């Protein structure tokens, strides 16, 4: 309840307020979420980031991280304040050179109020100085900063940035990166893109990495530890940088036997998806206890557990396929995850065929027949699986089935033109399932709404086409398991974190 008192000076104040241009009222806070229904408080509204410059120092013994992040952006509305997603302790924020006030809100919001409101379309330079111990931070109730015996790793999905740099943490706001990290001599720092330079001073070595193509925040990675680093160039001319923790133990040989084939697999995938879209390729295997792999852009993260049963090139194929489907062309919203996972899984099916261990058709028949109509497998809708079902098996396997159904419908010529055309036409951008359907219709010249609805959006088992159903019935109800299935199945928890 407010009591309104009009003092003698109030009329004068009111007359001053009337003198302020009406446009000043348009300055409002940027939204604390970018508008993704799966994760309402992820990302932020009011601006678009073009570049992150991160200058860091990390001490593995204590897990202490110090940093200065310079974020280049442009406002998309008249802003009185705006948010960044971040968890560590901030000591100073500057906006366009002037000190700004800041506070925290919610589980991971850094709220910044610039000294002067920012008009729409204004270029903005935000400098954030910070420090902290990432392993002690959680939000909401979890931590994606992975400690290792000799360092730490930042690699997770759908979020990982909060623990090491302030960001607009949603795939729809992609940016380029410079990541400079100082670590004690004898320790290495690995990130995305290409290593620009290294320098040593007073017991510290600084590694300067550059990602010169747009990258989603969850695809940015940092690994600090003692690594054996290998470099090579693929036959197709792609520089390859791989790294292996020096204490991988029994998994070391299998990890190398798999990841060292990165250049070969990149060239092979280029035959299906078009030219490799980035300045380098590669992967790293740190000594973590996690069980998943992640398509961190140009520098794939692999858990040692992926190689616990021996080499597995299928997981390497999966993560490298994401460099086109997921990294080059990123999802508009997290509900569009099928474009990432369905095509990465289908790439594994293509690799199976390449290796003579089962054709895509045989794998599709096996998956289709492995799940009876009453199986919960069919209740997950790959085209919109919900936040709790986003990384469930049907998104991968039923997602790949949908791709095989599309191939059957439009024919190989249109299908393979589509595989190459999509990354080219949407290079370094974002797209939705609806965008993909429209593109597929454009390339094939066929209406595909019913097919997409049946395979991606209906919570029930699609009926097999009559000719296919007859063929399957003739072969018997049981379809033989392709030789590659065990290796493919071993990657089912590839993103299960």
TrEMBL record:
Q: Which reaction(s) does the protein catalyse, per the Swiss-Prot or TrEMBL entry?
A: Release of an N-terminal amino acid, Xaa-|-Yaa- from a peptide, amide or arylamide. Xaa is preferably Ala, but may be most amino acids including Pro (slow action). When a terminal hydrophobic residue is followed by a prolyl residue, the two may be released as an intact Xaa-Pro dipeptide
Query: Which EC number applies?
Result: 3.4.11.2
SUPFAM superfamilies linked to this entry: Leukotriene A4 hydrolase N-terminal domain, Metalloproteases ('zincins'), catalytic domain
Q: Per its record, what are the GO molecular function terms? A: alanyl aminopeptidase activity; metallopeptidase activity; zinc ion binding
GO terms, biological process: proteolysis
Q: Which InterPro entries match?
A: Aminopeptidase_N-like_N, Aminopeptidase_N-like_N_sf, Peptidase_M1, Peptidase_M1_aminopeptidases, Peptidase_M1_dom, Peptidase_M4/M1_CTD_sf
Q: Which residues form the Peptidase M1 membrane alanine aminopeptidase domain?
A: 309-455
Q: What class of enzyme is it?
A: hydrolase
State the family named in the UniProt similarity comment for this chain.
Answer: Belongs to the peptidase M1 family.
Keywords in alphabetical order: Hydrolase, Metal-binding, Metalloprotease, Protease, Signal, Zinc
> Know the name of this protein?
Aminopeptidase N
Name the needed cofactors: Zn(2+)
Q: Which organism is it from?
A: Streptomyces cellostaticus
The UniProt entry, under Pfam families, shows: Peptidase_M1, Peptidase_M1_N
The Aminopeptidase N-like N-terminal domain sits at 50-219
Renumbered to this chain, the signal peptide range is 1-24
């Amino acid at each position: 309840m407010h009591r309104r008192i009009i003092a003698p000076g109030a009329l004068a104040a009111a007359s001053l307020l009337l003198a302020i241009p009406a446009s000043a009222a348009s300055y409002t806070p940027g939204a604390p979420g970018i508008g993704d229904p799966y994760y309402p408080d992820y990302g932020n509204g009011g601006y678009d980031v073009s570049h992150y410059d991160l200058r860091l120092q990390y001490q593995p013994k204590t897990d202490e991280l110090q940093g200065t992040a310079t974020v280049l952006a442009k406002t998309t509305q008249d802003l009185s304040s705006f948010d960044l997603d971040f968890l560590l302790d901030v000591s100073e924020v500057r906006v366009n050179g002037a000190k700004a006030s800041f506070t925290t809100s919610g589980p991971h919001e850094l709220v910044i109020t610039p000294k002067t409101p920012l008009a729409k379309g204004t270029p903005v330079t935000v400098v954030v100085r910070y420090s902290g111990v990432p392993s002690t931070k959680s939000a909401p109730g979890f931590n994606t900063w992975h400690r290792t015996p000799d360092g730490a790793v930042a690699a997770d999905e759908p979020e990982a940035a909060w623990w090491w740099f302030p960001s607009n943490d949603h795939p729809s706001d992609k940016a380029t990166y410079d990541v400079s990290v100082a670590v004690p001599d004898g320790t290495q720092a690995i990130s995305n893109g290409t290593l620009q330079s290294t320098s040593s001073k007073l017991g510290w070595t600084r590694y300067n990495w550059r990602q010169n193509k747009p990258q989603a925040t969850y695809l940015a990675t940092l690994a600090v530890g003692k690594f054996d680093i290998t470099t090579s160039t693929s036959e197709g001319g792609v520089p390859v940088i791989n790294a292996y923790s020096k204490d991988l133990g029994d998994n070391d040989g299998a990890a190398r036997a798999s990841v060292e084939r990165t250049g070969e697999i990149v060239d092979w995938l280029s035959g299906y998806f078009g030219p490799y879209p980035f300045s380098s390729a590669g992967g790293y295997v740190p000594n973590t206890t996690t069980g998943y792999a992640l398509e961190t852009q140009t520098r794939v993260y692999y858990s040692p557990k992926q190689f616990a049963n021996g080499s597995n090139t299928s997981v390497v194929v999966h993560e490298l396929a994401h460099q086109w489907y997921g990294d080059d062309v990123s999802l508009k919203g997290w509900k569009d995850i099928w474009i990432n996972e369905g095509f990465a899984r289908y790439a594994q099916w293509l690799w199976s065929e390449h290796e003579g261990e089962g054709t895509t058709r045989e794998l599709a028949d096996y998956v289709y027949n492995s799940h009876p109509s009453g199986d919960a497998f069919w209740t997950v809708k790959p085209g919109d699986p919900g936040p709790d079902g986003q990384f469930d098996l049907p998104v991968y396997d039923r997602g790949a089935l949908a791709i095989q159904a599309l191939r059957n419908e439009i024919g190989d010529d249109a299908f393979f033109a589509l595989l190459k055309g999509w990354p080219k036409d949407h290079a370094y951008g974002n797209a939705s399932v609806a965008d993909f359907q429209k593109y597929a219709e454009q390339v094939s010249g066929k209406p595909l709404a019913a097919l997409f609805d049946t395979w991606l959006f209906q919570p029930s088992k699609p009926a097999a086409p009559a000719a296919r159903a007859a063929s399957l019935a003739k072969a018997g109800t049981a379809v033989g398991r392709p030789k590659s299935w065990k290796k493919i199945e071993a990657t089912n928890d590839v993103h299960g974190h």
